[in-house]
């Protein structure tokens, strides 16, 4: 359910708290701490005030709050005991459908992490692929306690910024969405390549999973971004362009088999809120790509 | 065993026939037909004279000759009943180690082919990958009889040209070898990229098999061609360049994870005797490739 | 003065003719011929109807009409005896400021043309550079009479389409404007190059005249098209990008003197109503360009 | 006249000094200082020993030696009073054919330089274009005395290394030559572009002088380097490729006028002993270049 910022600014305190109180996991006190700071000039300001309340809280309260988060891909998830928001977030990256082996790996990492730091591993899963979550897990296990506590709070900021952006509309929305786009130019003909079939794959380890398909329009672009309207999950990707078919349809000599047929462009996304433009300039005998804008 | 063309030109007829008589499968008459045409000015001329004898032979002799070739990946191969040359050639492309399923597929294709054309499927396997042989098989099954008989003779010309080139040395060697090379230019630094790890994969269906590894030298090239000293097997390939490691070793900012890490270049080879130069020009944020020279 | 198409559609016949009667040079009969065809569904339809009237006129009327056009860069222009529209058009391409030598060259071409064809040379000067007009002149002198008469009418269509588009507003405006744009990507840094100084030159013979300057904004583009809001004059151009300064300001090693400093991109425009996007992708050691979209 | 290093190593001392004594301008004492160090293992070692003698000389002897050099483009040059070697070197870069204005500019710079430093401006002219010499002159005038004296000795090392390399043959020749090469790949056709006309221009200020012409061979290269067998003069250059003619001869649609006709690549040379490979990859609608190897 959406709430207008203007409405929240003038709502009764209890109504305000009911509306945004579940933003911070099991921590309605965060909303209560900021209700007196209204009105907020922007949705971003509301979120920053709530994060400010978390950062200003005494250490034991912060720790209790952090500990209130569920394990990632943990037993609570298996048992269906998550909050609705956590359940939805974990499912978005496939953590609800792990194999026994993957579940066991997450279980071992969760245990090692909690033993070292005394709180559960928290990551904004919507900003990551499954591959990247595992990388983060292993990398953050090497942190010292202070660095890792700060990292956990930063991840909570990412998580709650997304929750607020999904719940509240109004001025000054936080920037939470990225965009992945492409463009195919046929530099043999000197014009956009229309009708080129495109596949987008995401890597998990060595395996590539197809996550989107598209075809280029008359301007050589796709009608919609390949990923858009959400954070771009950090991870490794491959775009595949059926340019052999394109030049075959134009009747261009390209060898038998064609020198280029399916052109793969493999790249990583590191900035979930960024714009990644990954175009392909091609002839039957050459191609180039770059991070564009 | 190597024979000098000059020696063959002045050898006793029987010795000439003994030396090159097994070039054409189970057909010593081909050597006998050309012994009187000596001396040959070049190794190429010797081979062309022998093919001329085949093409000039009566149709029933040609057919018997063609029928004398073993099935590709057939029962004779399994039973160890091939000539030494055929055994070596079929092994070069892995036809001696097919799975039961692949063996069955070849068996079905062989049967269909012989039923349609009345002679076994002949292909110069050293000019093909396994993938390409299967493509050829299915494509050639659609030929009419005359076209296919001419195709079989052309493949025999390829096979025997390689056999002659492996047996006879001297002036005017036939061109039987191709070359696959690469070059990595770091256009961020404006110089060749040294020490870049490269892998070469060959595709069979959707699976990629690694067939070579190399690292670039100070000139950004590999010390030896990726494939050389033999025909380039027609088929689909992928070069993979570890350019993320290269830029990491130079200490260059490239994102986390790096925008480009392993760069795959996927291409096909269609000319076994050609030179394929497939270079990579790259920065941490862009790359290009082309069929060079 | 602008006229709304809707107003023209319902104006008194005399008012309609007063408004658009001077579109066709000294030929008010063209407007009179179409006044009864109103209402026009679009500005394009109005123009096409007027051209239809020209094409449907008897040959002697057409010829008188064509002969009513002034010489290009002729004595009438020198004497100030042109219609306002012709004067403005000829001035746009510098035909009012020719040197004595250039004037003499135009004079010779005009004489040769009129002697061969019996009517003056007509070209839509706003779709050409001075260089291209001279090329057209020499090329069209080789036409036969029928081809050249058709060419003259086509040029009149271009001229009057622009005049109508400048005079009448409303639905279905004819497409008369092109656009020349650029984009500078720093593929060394993986982002748009901001603040790059750009110059645009037009060639007349071997000489290049600077016709525009710009600097790239944060997205690596110019705030306005390099040429826009008018037909792109057919001709030869050069863009020059001060990329040496760009990399110097980033503190990047680029040699002394820098391997690349001013990068010139030389290209021609052939489609006045087209979009020419001519981007530059560059590092201190490499660059590429293409006709984009 | 060439001398073999082996001969010089065993020649009588007077003969050795006669052979190489004029290497250092008006300073036969340099050869005398090293005659006892023979045999030299390489030509490079001979030159380094001679430079060692210069660097080891007392300051007043060094200064007298440096002062023995003629002014660049100075009165001695005009009056024909140079040593043969100096005359030849200065002519190589056109300093013997300056306009009055240029002569006056050099005169002013020479005077300012000698007034500041007390010795004449010395530069290895064969490693520079005229443009670059003027740049060096103005840049070095800003040096402090110690830096500039070291710079003068370094330039003398360059000058004498070239003189020794031209005079003495044998093991371990110093590397004094650079190479400028190009390569034209037609990525529309996927093969080298043969028969492309190429011009090489050198810039002096804003003016470009054509210094070489060539055409590509079947491999898309020029039969000889564009500059080779000598140091590459530091300076600014432009290569121009007639690719419009190339694609016209192939019958490829490229617009009228062609989008690309003469493609200019403008670059600078900073390393006289380096290899500059400046290739062009092109279609009728795109091109790229890079510093290759």
TrEMBL record, chains A, B, C, D:
Pfam families: OHCU_decarbox (PF09349), Transthyretin (PF00576)
Domain Oxo-4-hydroxy-4-carboxy-5-ureidoimidazoline decarboxylase, first and last residues per copy: 9-164
Catalyses which reaction(s): 5-hydroxyisourate + H2O = 5-hydroxy-2-oxo-4-ureido-2,5-dihydro-1H-imidazole-5-carboxylate + H(+); 5-hydroxy-2-oxo-4-ureido-2,5-dihydro-1H-imidazole-5-carboxylate + H(+) = (S)-allantoin + CO2
MF annotations from Gene Ontology: 2-oxo-4-hydroxy-4-carboxy-5-ureidoimidazoline decarboxylase activity
Broad EC category: lyase
Pathway: Purine metabolism; urate degradation; (S)-allantoin from urate: step 3/3
InterPro entries: Hydroxyisourate_hydrolase, OHCU_decarboxylase, OHCU_decarboxylase-1, OHCU_decarboxylase_sf, Thyroxine_BS, Transthyretin/HIU_hydrolase, Transthyretin/HIU_hydrolase_d, Transthyretin/HIU_hydrolase_sf
Superkingdom as given in the UniProt entry: Bacteria
Annotated Transthyretin/hydroxyisourate hydrolase domain residues: 180-292
Keyword annotations: Decarboxylase, Hydrolase, Lyase, Purine metabolism
NCBIfam families in the cross-refs: hdxy_isourate, UHCUDC
Protein name (Swiss-Prot/TrEMBL): 2-oxo-4-hydroxy-4-carboxy-5-ureidoimidazoline decarboxylase
Naturally occurring in which organism (per UniProt): Reyranella aquatilis
